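Human: If only I could read backbone structure tokens as easily as an amino acid sequence. Underneath my words sits a plain record pairing an amino acid chain with its backbone structure tokens. Take your time, and here it is.
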Amino acid sequence: MTLKLWLAISILFSFFISNVIGAFVGVNIGTDVTNLPPASDVVALLKARQITHVRLFNADAHMLNALANTSIEVIIGVTNEEVLGIGESPSAAAAWVNKNVAAYTPGTNITAIAVGSEVLTAIPNVAPVLVPAMNYLHKALVASRLNNQVKVSTPQSMDVIAKAFPPSTATFNSSWNSTIFQILQFLRNTNSYYMLNAYPYYEYVHSDGIFPIEYALFQPLSAVKQIVDPNTLFHYESMFDALVDATYNSIEALNFSDIPIVVTETGWPWDGGSNEPDATKENAETFNNNLIRRVSNDTGPPSQPKNPINTFIYEMFNEDKRPGPISERSWGIFSTNGSDVYSISLGSSAGISGNSSTAFCIAKPGADENKLQDGINWACGQGRANCSAIQSGQPCYFPNTWQNHASYAYNDYYQRMRSVGGTCDFDGTATMTTQDPSSKTCKFTGSSNPGGVFPPAAFGPISATSQSSSIRAPVIVYTLAVFFALLIA
């Protein structure tokens, strides 16, 4: 291969690595869960649902080990309890990085450290050491030659903004101006990004009816309910966009204009007490699915249309150990057995619709679980079905229910044995269907659909924010021009 050809191919390869990936939706993983699955099962669920970005609230060793060699991008958290010690001691910061970052890279794709959680409003007495903690951690990353891969930032709530509407006049609460200025200066100097926790649910509840719920749920607004910033005349189709724009404008009010925002927490609770009537499964399903569609548009809010809004949903499982109202324990999108709390299209839809010419043997909905267990034992034992795919960590393990596992085992037995008299009965717990029960990651015997489809491995970490298609288009033209010029020169 000539030098010119090698150079041209290298340029084209680098371009596609850095430009084909758009905005993402990730998930937060909390651990205040009574029956938290093993880390290997959690990662299997992430892979099954094609979730490529996660945020851990702490540097959990089991999760960091399980995430190795998956290409899943990981934000790890310094807990609020750890911030003070790290902010007072460069050696403590270096020890933290060595133990929780350097020890796992490059196998585990750690891309950022979130220093604390809403420190300014949750533990204001620690605010004086927040920026020193960020600086010490960054210097430790530099010493470990990880600073280009791992960014440092700190998640803040909307409470640090004095008044979020209209977004054009939003500013940070003046009592925090000095600290926030230092945070923004650090983010700019280290090419990092602002971590924002933005919850339309709380903004809607606390608005006392000023804003319609459709606005909070990304639903269309009638002409008389349109939300318009009177200063810019920007139309806001969702409260989510308005909160992000309010934060951008607050940042610009302190004369910073080149710091992108990543929403590190957002979501909607699916259950609540009698005084929380809007915390319902229907609203949670509507919010999160509309959120995913919104982020997937790969565009920013009205004032920053070219800055996509990378976002993490709060959260993967219900943290049932959390104190407070019922809603505090009801944000999870998955049950600990891997089934959906409600239908959600995060990553890639688990089901495959459409008709099939093949008949499948599956467990009857609502069948007695004891009978299903007996059926599984017989199919996987005497029936000689291949049940390896429903073992922990394997592609058909989730959802971890008797119904799901029995369906797989029953069908595998039936497809293997029907030609020699095998039946689909299993003591009345089985039924036939022409609807293919396969998922993107779990292929049932007899399916004509391809199974085991996972997203391609990432070629190393990608930037915290991705360019929108409107930016990428001219870059594509330029890159291809350089490529062909090199070929013909």
The mean pLDDT is 86. The CA atoms of residues 374 and 426 lie 9 Å apart.
